[in-house]
Design brief:
Length: about 375
Amino acid sequence: MKFLLVGTNPENTGAATHFVALAEALVEAGHEVNVVAFPGGLIAQELSRVGRVQVHGGRFRNAFDLRGYACVLAVASQVRPDWLIGNFGKEYWPLIALGRLLRVPVALFRHRTPPMKMLSAWLLPRLAQRFFAVSNNARQAYLDRGIPADLVHVLYNPVNLHRCQPDPWRRRAILRSLGIDEEATVLGYAGRMHHGKGVFTLLEAANAAMIAQPRLHCLWLGDGPDAEALRAQASAGPAASRHHFLGWIDDVSPYYSAMSMLAFPSIAPETFGRVSVEAQAAGVPVLGSDIGGIPETMAAGQTGLLLPPGDVQAWREAIVQLCDATTRQAMGAAARAFVEQRFSTTVIAANLVRSLAEASNGASARKSLRST
């Protein structure tokens, strides 16, 4: 198949990371992939390094940006794709319009649960030939708002197993650079730092666990509105020297090797949880909140533990439990196998192509019925 993926958001977001991984997955599966992306943005930078992806500069400032329409129209007229694929809200309506004009089917990915504007929420799943939510939890949010079940499909985020894999040498190098003993147990967090992500619950639980586990350290990757308050609270705590704040990291994949376990402690619902899947791909067990789409990213009790959001005592006990090397290593081994079977680029690309083929076949069958 030929695909034209349109993603002109310049920011480093989960949707942007998904966009890159999806393009990589389709290329690895042997498909022809062209991309319209913001020049110099994360998507353009990452995909420029990938062989066999043609990146075209373009931008939609909003859904009415005629220069964006002209750019996509020019590229689509040149490459004649079998599908147009969009990942960002401001490009949904332009792609629907261009798909109608070019007679090319459109697939849209929605990385948030509603609300969209009421008209968009009602029409877009009906007008796109495929409308994908990135978890069953996210899909249910649309069904709860009256969207027919057959119009909202689920396709999980793909993860590049080559980027996320255990690397003992890298672990030693990172720990050495941070002044952490190689025999330490490292609890990692990667993501936005604000209250809804459960970072203060995690800090309190980690401090309590450190009393019983003198080799336990915390590695904090990320930034956000509560980062300063979190650092201040950690610095004032009893184990300040064992908390390591590295700030925002564009590519956290090398740091998974330094982690003994990853915490995903959100107290607000998450649509999915890409960081959970990436960590498991690197052989790192996950402690995750039992909320939103997070449970879909792991095999509870096998690749990690699901915990009640905001329950400091439960999180403290789980951290201590995974300080046991035997338990942790068994879960880590199961975690990578779990990701390979469910979230690898090979699996997700095959699922996407299968779903799009079903949509195309269904459209052809309906056209044949109308003509008889």
